[in-house]
Amino acid sequence: MAVWLAILLIIVALLAGAALGFFIARRYMMSYLKKNPPINEQMLKVMMMQMGQKPSQKKINQMMKAMNNQIK
User: Fold this and answer.
1) Which distant-in-sequence residues (6+ apart) come within 8 Å of 68 by Cβ?
2) 30 phi and psi, to 5 degrees?
3) What is the rounded CA–CA span in Å between residue 23 and residue 43?
4) What 3-state DSSP class applies to 72?
């Protein structure tokens, strides 16, 4: 009987550890991406110039705002 209890506790501990690890990693990545966004204004300006558009500051601000809203 004690063997089954030990096996059950091991399985529960593994599942709890996996779930806890997932949520900790998710929270870490969300805070990392919030502090270090993947695209900044300079990158956006270069991309628009490569596409043949002359980027105005108003257009860049609109796109950055849209991307930040999409992240949230």
Assistant:
1) 37
2) -65, -45
3) 31
4) coil
